[in-house]
Amino acid sequence: MKNDSSGASLAEALRVEIRALRPGARLPSSRALMERHRVSPVTVTRAIGQLAAEGLVVTRPGSGAFVAERPRPRADPPDFGWQAVALGDRTVDASTVRELVSPVPDGMIRLSGGYLHASLQPSRALATAMGRAARRPDAWEAPPPAGLAGLRTWFARATGPDLTPDDVTVTGGGQQSLATVLRALLPPGSPLLVESPTYPGVLALARMIGLQPVPVPVDTDGLRPDLLAEAFGVTGARAVYCQPTLHNPTGAVMPSQRRERVLAVARAAGAFVVEDDYARHFVAEPVPPPLVTADTEGRVVHIASLTKVTAPSVRIAGVIARGPVAERIRSAQLVTDFFPARPLQEAVLELVGAPGWTRHLAAVRTALTARRDALLTAVARELGAAPRRPSGGLHAWVPLPAGTDDRAVAEAAARAGVRVSAGRPYFPAEADGPYARLSWGAAASEAEIAEGVRRLAGVLP
Amino acid sequence: MKNDSSGASLAEALRVEIRALRPGARLPSSRALMERHRVSPVTVTRAIGQLAAEGLVVTRPGSGAFVAERPRPRADPPDFGWQAVALGDRTVDASTVRELVSPVPDGMIRLSGGYLHASLQPSRALATAMGRAARRPDAWEAPPPAGLAGLRTWFARATGPDLTPDDVTVTGGGQQSLATVLRALLPPGSPLLVESPTYPGVLALARMIGLQPVPVPVDTDGLRPDLLAEAFGVTGARAVYCQPTLHNPTGAVMPSQRRERVLAVARAAGAFVVEDDYARHFVAEPVPPPLVTADTEGRVVHIASLTKVTAPSVRIAGVIARGPVAERIRSAQLVTDFFPARPLQEAVLELVGAPGWTRHLAAVRTALTARRDALLTAVARELGAAPRRPSGGLHAWVPLPAGTDDRAVAEAAARAGVRVSAGRPYFPAEADGPYARLSWGAAASEAEIAEGVRRLAGVLP
Predict the structure, then answer these.
(1) Radius of gyration of chain A (CA)
(2) Which candidate in A28, A162, B116, B444 could, as Cys together with B120 as Cys, close a disulfide (CB 3.0–4.6 Å)?
(3) A413 contacts: CB under 8 Å, gap ≥ 6
(4) Residue A388 sits in the same domain as residue A324
């Protein structure tokens, strides 16, 4: 329980306690709660009031708050068997996504996930911007369906000189962008070419909406154009999903010439390129501009999320597309999600337009570079491995000893107090070997990163 | 331009002005902007700074701010023809959804849409709650993937006595809930039974994700169980979407006995019932409890949105489901959207837990009842029509003279200064006659409602 000025946070803690108590049990006194949680009397009153409103506690003036009777259990245990028939054999595998967004237990070191540690997040600037945004007279009205004009302008300017606000649709984050774009581009049943390995979230999503991910291998320069051409030919696919800059998980950066070849191959196939530019703000060394800036025919649909370079709850991204597909993407976004909450859009617009924004980006890049070097040094020392050194980003792709089961390694590592990502879920089909993906963005410090790698080394054969 | 303490709002207004100016043109002086927009010097400086950061203006110390050069046009006009081939013949029809969420021009009266007028929104309480939520130490971290425990508890308690927080998944609003639920329940290509008429947003969504909406007529008690049984038999459908309480658009409330029959029919068909409970908070006269409370076998998937009873940008809803389908819904939500931003969840939790919440609900109900009566009185007087008087809600379903083209009426009404919804888009297939849906929630006042109906009367034959 963090020390906090709001009753909602105290209420949240008390809900957990209440579950462990029997109905009628008395809650600690207001005084005890004030001391234990270091909060004011007002905060305690607000928290208890909220729990009473929810029916979790009953208050008796003069004697205190008591755990309420629980809802009576249903007479018969429910029989859900019919659901298995109705639902059929489709499943939705959210395990890899859940791992990305779930917190780690106390004491466990996090070398997984794609979010910045709290100490690297611009929380204060966000709080100020959001406080201001939420108080405006029209704060809670609908924003323009495609997003605030200022935010669309910012995304266009931040991405490339020829892009305009009309090319941008604001969405509720990178994953929602991906869902919208894939649904807009491809009918159910279509193949979707993806890098192998690739971001597991795109695999889970594609399968859920009825697309068939088809792997195309990457090398140290990213997606292989020769095999991409072959895959288009074999499958008749109309789209390829890729991360040309700091590819997840290998960290490869596609050189300019390779980018041109990928665009040419897509052109020859009459296909779209979905460019997931998740790592643009994490570039430590110069890299080519985004694919979309070299695109003159609306071939590239570009996804630029602001979540990774800020904080997990900044659920805002921009999708950039030109030509008829832009209208389809905008319509698809509107039909499935309407629009991201206006105060969030306003707060993000203020954040990226403020003088502190470039300082934030510079600070994050500096911190991540130091963390990357700490992680790679520890990997060399503890694991005797020398993975590729990415030109920035958030993670390294570490080969494990031949014959290792990478999922078993990740499980053993978790028992030893460090969360790493097994490489297996990153492959759309067979893996080309055992890997672990080690992230340096989510840990608390360089010392913690080094300790995490030590713990991982301890479970390797 | 509203008077506002923040520079972002001024910047938004200036962006529109800048588009109309040529590059190099000088912006009004700071003093002129302060006077015209009634803002402080700090606000002007912040706004200009933001526009400069976006590259829209260039500032020259001592002489002012000037419109920047526009991006040079591309050498060749782009040829997007290939996209038509790649995209094929699918389209996404967002027109009805766009109408729901788009603002109306100045001077036009709004008798359309499902949101409350700004004067009925709890904007101040939301601003306070959001300001507090955004400042908490963990505000911007990821919330639990299924939603804050307190918010799930609140949704469960607010819906029925036997429901638990584990039955609830928090989503980013009603439309997103619908997208998640339909995707989780049905594979692409499946039939989906819907009321006829029904909410156009479900039709657009179902078609986009590859489902086939199959109409089942409603009568004055809502969905007809006899025809529902027949539709299940003919199509083999595994789900029906319905609004048993204050059906949109007819306003019908399904009586208890009818509810039991609908559940029995769904049981016999081995199918799910998706209960869209959008109007629960707008009930002016007693109605039966939600379908989900009579469900003992996980048959009903219940969608409870908080947007309509608060404000358009409160993008928070709860999906209630039990049995294996609950896990599938939770996974589907995670894979397509991750989670709604934590500050928004915290702010909403504080809002609904505060003592002012029940006062807000009561005030909204009182205001809407008066508005309903004003609208129905005006309709009787001006149109000579006597539509059913709904037991609450936001709208009336008004039959137009036989032979009228309801879309043409809506267009003529818009030209005459009132936005109403044509009935046609509410029908999955053929319409049973011409209608207009008139909403009393979004107009500014009862006087405006009466004037809107007068304007509509003026365009009728």
Answers:
(1) 25
(2) B116
(3) A419, A420, A436, A455, A456, A459
(4) no
Domain match, A107 and A153 both: no
- Provide the residue type at A343 as one letter: P
* Residue A259 belongs to domain spanning: 139-353
B399 sits in which H/E element: strand B395-399
How far apart, in whole angstroms, are the C-alpha atoms of residue A459 and residue A410?
9
* Domain tally, chain A: 3
CB contacts < 8 A (A, B): 387
Q: What is the pLDDT along chain A (461 residues), one digit of tens a residue?
A: 333 445 777 887 888 788 888 888 999 998 899 988 888 888 888 888 878 877 788 888 788 899 988 766 556 778 898 999 999 888 899 998 888 888 899 999 999 999 999 999 999 999 999 999 999 989 999 999 999 999 999 999 999 989 999 999 999 999 999 999 999 999 999 999 999 999 999 999 999 999 999 999 999 999 999 999 999 999 999 999 999 999 999 999 999 999 999 999 999 999 999 999 999 999 988 899 999 999 999 999 999 999 999 999 999 999 999 999 999 999 999 999 999 999 999 999 999 999 899 999 999 999 999 999 999 999 999 999 888 899 999 999 999 999 999 999 999 999 999 999 999 999 999 999 999 999 999 999 999 999 999 999 999 98
Domain co-membership, B200 together with B345:
yes
Nearest CB to B336 within list A135, A153, A176: A176
Tokens of B167: 């039955």
- Per CB-CB distance under 8 Å, the chain B contacts of A72 are 161-162
Amino acid identity, position A328: R
Same domain, B243 and B296: yes
CATH number at residue A407: 3.90.1150.10
The answer to whether residue B63 neighbours chain A at the CB level (below 8 Å) is no
Residue A339 forms contact with B (CB below 8 Å): yes
Chain B interface disruption, residue of A1, A92, A120, A240, most B CBs within 10 A: A92
- Strands (DSSP E) found in B20-63: 57-60
Instruction: Establish whether this prediction's ipTM goes over 0.90.
Output: no
Neighbour-count burial of A22, counting CB atoms closer than 10 A to its CB (0-12 exposed, 13-18 middle, 19+ buried): exposed
